[in-house]
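Schema walk-through. Below, the input block comes first and the output block second. Nothing else is stored per chain. Lengths vary across the set, and this one has 608 residues.
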Amino acid sequence: MKMDFFDLKTLTLIKDTIKLIKYIHGKDIDIENISLDDKKTYELFQKGQTIGIFQYESLGMQKYLRDLKPTVFEDLIAMNALYRPGPLEYIPSFVRRKNGLENITYDIPEMEEYLKETYGITVYQEQVMQLSQKLANFSKGDADLLRKAMGKKIFSLLEKLKPKFFEGGNSNGFSHEVLEKVWKDWEAFASYAFNKSHSTCYAYIAYQTAYLKAHYPAEYMAAVLSNNMNDIKQVSFFMEECKQMGIEVLGPDINESFYKFTVNDKGAIRFGMGAVKGVGRSAVEAIINSRQEKRYDSIFDFSKRVDLRSANKKAFDSLVLAGAFDLMNSKTHRAQYFYELEDGQSFIEKAIRFGSKFQERQNSSQASLFGDALEVRIKEPEFPECNPWSKLDELKKEKEVVGIYISSHPLDDFYLAMDHFISISLNHLGDLENHVNRELSVGGIVNEVEHLESRAGKSWARFTLEDFTDLYEFRIFGEDYLKYRHFLVSNQFIRIRLMVREGWINKETGKIGSPRIQYLNFEMLENTIENNAKKITLNIDVKQLKKEKIDDLQNYLKSFKGDKPLYFNLYDSGKKVKLTMNSRKQKVKITSEFLNELKGQKWMYKLN
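--- output ---
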């Protein structure tokens, strides 16, 4: 018997999800006894919705799962064994056979007994062991030697076993030609042989995680986020998956959050306080313990009740910056907490002193004599009047303590420009080799900028651009730098058109260097739509052609008179008829405000 032991965080993920389900729904899930023919779970695999599913989350695997449309557990076992270098080439045939698009054939009819579950394709070491015994009278020991030779790629041992295979096969009446083909297939199989028992264990764990994701999506994704809490890129990635699943991820909240991510009573995932920098486990435990009987209703109530030895000023600061106090008072804003008062203290410091003073008196002998009377005597400080931070400043500070933007994103106001006129997101710009001789457009907010000078005295710059997906560092030199340097300002929102060119040729070695970026144009994102939209076409279903709706549109278009052509696509989806017309009288000014109004009125459009 061979045993492999793995330290998998997936097991912790399953355990955490089950705990959340118990806490939120009061249900006990016996994960070891779930049905292996659950329809909802297979639908998840069939749609390739396997992000966060152990062993099945790569883009390639998602594609093959959508093609295969697995319906039984054996399909998942086989895909796990096949999706690796070597056997990958068998997947298209496996998919076609599964879906009845290719005949399932066997070199020898007797092979069907062991190859039926994999549609006539040899996938596992165990199948070779069973077939060698059935076809060539191998003993169990010889069959295991064959497995070992394949698994360890010991070709000298395979050569020793080959005569025995032919001898046994001939004695069972099989022709030399057929046995030769089977053996050749097995020799090729030796380069990627995989044992079914190993693949089954992986598939079983994957099935359990998929079952939880299919039936309890919010609880499962909360556990996924918790188990990746220390990797902010992964948190960002899985938050995007939550968005695709229609699950809202809310920022931390002093009354709802726990140390890890959890799910509130509305089915939204609540950010874990443990993911906020400067808020340790002891601070979170103190916060949770003090709110068990009653929710906090203000920062003063919070400072009076929480253990201030565990929740210190740093924890207060971080929680405010992360938005954990936002829901307690809609009339306040984050800048007020950090406003410096006349005595040089910040308002947060004053709130902590208030709580500390209250707790001291409460614990004194006077508290036992006069009870609640003292609480009335200690007056709560009033929030100072000050200007709120700009939305960008607030988000930047939020990101400092959380690592990502939670409440919103600085680029939200430019979503339409990014959607229509950005050809590639920054997370796909990592390997420039894939984009040589392609014109691309990227956009985002400028973060860090360094204006530098070369040894030869020439100016150049290094700057970081951030979009919804990632950060990317650019370098700009020579005339390009002189031409576009005024765009390189922190917190500026810009769009860049560029061309990826082949690298320079090294004159000494003749080798081509890494691909390089040629800058074609810089522009402000706020001007992108107006600068680049040439015309707009409204798509109108004839069934929606009502006089009131047309009148509303006509009046609305008058507010956006401009010089860009306006077209209409009139279509009848039932009769599959489409008529395209242009507006001779009306031309429009295409701006983000204009497009947002169209979106609000539910007019479908296309930009060119």
